[in-house]
Amino acid sequence: MLGSLLLAGSRSPLARRAVSGLPVTRKVVDRFVAGETTADAVEATRRLTAAGLAVTIDHLGEEVRDAATARAAAKAYVSLLDALAPLGLGRRAEVSVKLSAVGQRLDEAMALEHARQICSAARDCGSTVTLDMEDHTTVDSTLEVLRALREDFPETGVAIQAYLFRSEADCRDLAGSRVRLVKGAYREPASVAYQSKGEVDRAYVRCLRVLMAGTGYPMVATHDDRLIAIAELLADRHDRDRDAYEFQMLYGIRTDKQLALAEAGSRVRVYVPYGDDWYGYFMRRLAERPANVAFFLRALKGK
Ligand SMILES: Cc1cc2nc3c(=O)[nH]c(=O)nc-3n(C[C@H](O)[C@H](O)[C@H](O)COP(=O)(O)OP(=O)(O)OC[C@H]3O[C@@H](n4cnc5c(N)ncnc54)[C@H](O)[C@@H]3O)c2cc1C
């Protein structure tokens, strides 16, 4: 219930103004967001990679409604990749892109062109791109853009959301590619998505089975201990070495677990968001976990 309200709020301009204007918000946001500038993202990358983790960096922004902002988002990624190049991290530092940030809602061809520019800059520094998945109305378009990108950049990955009924079939189609499997973070209707945690978790396992049995590179993006253990079992069953799949978690969430998995020899990648358009991302993190709302309210009270 609270989660649904927060997800509704994540798309409300009124709630955006109210939450963004609270003096304590920045302090709480900093727990989930690595900073506002390219330099902040590079610094977080240095810190996390020095600790044995890999990163995928997200320049925050979504649902862009004008061409200039979409162009600026693509430029920000290219500048970021240029700044990462001297670190020589290759695939240990990749980028995550929301197509709606580079123009998908305006014109799919524009989003494809911007995504191509980002993929090309990524390739120049030995890195890769993964397309985030947004609400269900964008899935067909995102997979279409992915198909076009993969003609020139077959290393491009995509996130698939286990909560959507269609995703097991999408995993089958993509089982030879880099696929990040997530539970799903948007408010979706019962006509397209499982609604209960139990159903979503079972769907996640079904998708995981398909990906682990395939020839691609599964990216197991979850903080859920049970699913992490199941992924390890399935990888073992399919004779996958530790470098034939990876775990992914979000910046600031279960940091101890990230380090413990890496120390035990698993590949772990942290999703690092940065930039000033943090509102939608932040609200989805609050919606995932009531304890985060309590943390936010405690910060307000302590003000
Ligand atoms: C690397 C990465 C990339 C992602 N990309 C996408 C994407 O492209 N599209 C998309 O729809 N979704 C994406 N997500 C979000 C995802 O869909 C889930 O909403 C999110 O990961 C929470 O689900 P969970 O699998 O961690 O399991 P849950 O059942 O939600 O959580 C399991 C446990 O993890 C911890 N936890 C989970 N969330 C939080 C939180 N916010 N704060 C503190 N603790 C928490 C808690 O201990 C919780 O008990 C991504 C997630 C990750 C990790």
How many DSSP helices?
13
Main sheet overview: 8 strands, parallel, barrel
Radius of gyration: 18 Å
Which molecules are bound besides the chains? flavin-adenine dinucleotide
Task: Report the end-to-end length measured between terminal Cα atoms.
Answer: 27 Å
Structural class: alpha/beta
Proportion of residues in extended strands: 5-15%
The residue ranges in which pLDDT falls below 50 over 5 or more consecutive positions are none
Q: Please bin the fraction of helical residues.
A: 40-55%
Give the overall form: globular
> Which strands sit side by side, in order, in the main sheet?
1-2-3-4-5-6-7-8
Q: What's the rounded overall pLDDT mean?
A: 93
Order of helices and strands: HHHHEHEHEHEHEHEHEHEHH
Quantity of strands, as a count: 8
Detailed description of the structure:
This protein is α/β, with parallel strands linked by helices. The protein has helices spanning 2-9, 13-21, 25-29, 38-50, 67-84, 108-124, 139-152, 167-173, 197-213, 225-237, 255-263, 279-288, 290-302; strands at 54-59, 93-97, 129-131, 157-161, 178-182, 217-221, 246-250, 268-274. Strands 1-2-3-4-5-6-7-8 form an eight-stranded parallel β-barrel, surrounded by seven helices. Helix 4 (38-50) crosses helix 5 (67-84) and helix 12 crosses helix 13 (290-302). The longest helix is centred in the N-terminal third of the chain and has 18 residues, at 67-84. The protein binds flavin-adenine dinucleotide. Flavin-adenine dinucleotide is lined by residues 132-133, 159, 161, 180, 182-186, 221-224, 248-250, 253-254, 271, 285, 288-289, 292.
